[in-house]
Amino acid sequence: MTTILVLNGPNLGRLGTREPEVYGSETLADIEADLAASAPEGVEIDVRQTDDEAELIGWIHEAVDRRLPVVLNPAAFTHYSYALRDAAAQLQQAGVPLVEVHLSNPHSREAFRHTSVISGVATGVIAGFGSDSYRLAVDWVLRSQG
Ligand code: DQA
């Protein structure tokens, strides 16, 4: 069984009602169901969400230790969490793929969203495609695993 961790930071549990004009009307449960439905046989998509920086960092540590590829929407932590970046750097050091995803395109939004402290240690970044950002990220992870 291949497991891909799909980790989500603060306020992403509010998708569906949170600024739908920016983030769409799908809930995180909808996104999870879509990813599960399109996952090939033998692939588990483990979707988690937290508003707690420490919990998110703990999940990254778990991914390092279990060598699990990560699709990460760090939400607002993207823009300022050096602690999350330092955790993500351990994935890079271990050669474990990390795809940073965003529903919106932060570069077309407020200036504070133009900086990502995560991108420098991510394998790649997918942003601006709504819930398809997750789908594209998972597809790439699967392709990269051969
Ligand atoms: C986001 C973009 C971030 O700037 C914001 O803080 C979020 C969601 C996105 O998916 O577009 O919470 O990561």
Task: Briefly characterize the structure.
This protein has helices at 20-23, 28-38, 53-66, 82-94, 132-144; strands at 2-8, 43-49, 70-73, 98-102, 124-127. The radius of gyration is 14 Å and the shape is globular. 38% of the residues lie in helices and 18% in strands.
Order of helices and strands: EHHEHEHEEH
What is the CA-atom radius of gyration, in angstroms? 14 Å
Which molecules other than protein and nucleic acid are bound? 1,3,4-trihydroxy-5-OXO-cyclohexanecarboxylic acid
Number of strands: 5
Distance between the termini: 14 Å
**CATH domain fold name:** Rossmann fold
* Structure classification: alpha/beta
Structure description:
With 146 residues, the protein is α/β, with parallel strands linked by helices. It has one domain (2-145): Dehydroquinase, class II (Rossmann fold). Helices cover 38% and strands 18% of the residues. The chain is built from 5 helices and 5 strands; from the N terminus they run βααβαβαββα. The chain has helices spanning 20-23, 28-38, 53-66, 82-94, 132-144, and strands at 2-8, 43-49, 70-73, 98-102, 124-127. A 5-stranded parallel β-sheet has the order 2-1-3-4-5, with helices on both faces. Helix 4 links the parallel strand 3 (70-73) and strand 4. Helix 3 packs parallel to helix 4 (82-94). The two termini are 14 Å apart. 1,3,4-trihydroxy-5-OXO-cyclohexanecarboxylic acid (DQA) binds at residues 11, 73, 75-76, 78, 102-104, 106, 113.
